[in-house]
Amino acid sequence: MSAGKRNQSIDILRASEADHESGEGSATWSTLATVWAELIADRSIEGSVDGTTADGQRVKFNFPNNAPANTVNNDDRITWNSRTLRVVGVELAATESMGMTITAEIIKPGEA
Known about the structure:
By secondary structure, the chain is mainly beta. It contains no helices and six strands. Strand 4 and strand 5 (83-92) form a beta hairpin.
């Protein structure tokens, strides 16, 4: 993968549990890492794949496999283009230089 194709800034978010006086817990999302990634279209994407108009339900990103981004898992989320996405798949490439790929679903307003 060419570094020139990594033209999408994404934030990888990780939840931490916060306990309240009421005894209920809630997740607080914090930025684990900000990385430059390459947007890769998934078959379910509708519309353009130029990084600005991907309106489908799933997208894929490829980015460098280095810490702390290399700890991303299916419990994490990402933000991209003012959208929040749920990580649904993580694939490590055969070599570290090839990076890693995550698949994420766009979270629609009102979804948790």
